[in-house]
Amino acid sequence: MIKDIINNIGNMFASVYDTSHIKAKILGTLIALIIFPIIKKFILSPIINNIKNPEKRYNWNKVVSYVFYFLLFFIVGSFWFEGFESIATFLGLVAGGVAIALKDPLSNIAGWLHIITRAPFKIGDRIQLGEYAGDVVDITFSNFTIMEMGDGDQNTGRLIHIPNGQIFINSLANYEKGFHFIWNEIPVLVTFESNWEKAKMLLQGVIKIKSEKYHFNANDMMKKASKKFMIRKTSLEPSVYTSVKDSGVELTIRHLCKPRDKRDIQEDIWETILKEFKKEIDIDFAYPTVRRFMNKEEGKSTMIEEKYVSNNES
């Protein structure tokens, strides 16, 4: 068995370097290396560049490139390895060693196959993988590239190249799949002395108006997403929640928005809140402060005593 394999490998190399065939193989290789790039540059590339949709143009460009290199490798290989079938056993023997030596590259290729077949994300999607978040701008055999997302969920301008194998290790969040909205919360802190009930009513009015302005068909998207994922029915209406913090009463606005519109919508809401609170003399924003409290002068017992004395005098 081993002797046959060695003889087959020897015959393969003998056929490759046989002077009667070497010139034809070199000529065929050169022709393939010249003809294929010409076809790609002058025929396929102009056709692809005429596609107006950037996403479709990118996808077609990738597909053509993959097919191009595969055919080029296959044709050139067919010139030089006529006895390719005979070395299949030999390649099987070394496959285990190659898999160990090339663990990371093979993991990246497996990740690439997972991305193109299962489509956990595609070009243009906004994702978060582990500690990295951004918009996907490129996908290759070895890695995919995202435009980093910074504060305010806006692009920083930096490109991050992430190995494809990382999708098997880290948790992936896709902002564009399933339910295309996120819940955004805006905390508004007012002083304890403020009329927080009036402030809450004002905030409810503001977020109601803004929700009508930025109206999205969230209910239909929720129904569509619930058919594929186990999503329980919940209210999609905006709301305002009350809580107490060290520096005052916190009123938290909770509303739906699209991930890419978060900062613009939040700015619009804040500007309206600032204008509304400016009109009210009994509502003030709270911030961390240090104050002295004299219990004997300001405490409840003192106030009750003063009220009791005042009633007796009257």
Q: Give the averaged pLDDT, no decimals.
A: 77
Shape label? elongated
Largest sheet: 5 strands, antiparallel
Strand content is 15-25%
| Secondary-structure element pattern, one letter each | HHHHHEEEEEEHHEEHHH
| Uncertain parts | 83-87
Q: N-to-C terminal Cα separation, in Å?
A: 119 Å
Alpha carbon gyration radius: 34 Å
Q: Within the largest sheet, what's the order of strands?
A: 4-3-2-1-5
- Alpha-beta content class: alpha+beta
Protein architecture, described:
This protein is of the alpha+beta class and 314 residues long. The protein folds into three domains: 2-101, no CATH class; 121-174, SH3 type barrels; 182-278, Alpha-Beta Plaits (2-Layer Sandwich), CATH 3.30.70. Helix content is 53%, strand content 18%. It has helices spanning 2-16, 19-49, 54-80, 88-101, 103-118, 196-213, 218-228, 262-278, 295-298, 300-313; strands at 126-129, 132-139, 143-149, 155-163, 172-174, 182-190, 239-245, 248-257. The protein has a five-stranded antiparallel beta sheet with strand order 4-3-2-1-5. Strands 6-8-7 form a three-stranded antiparallel beta sheet. Helix 2 (19-49) runs antiparallel to helix 3 and helix 6 crosses helix 8. It is elongated, with a radius of gyration of 34 Å.
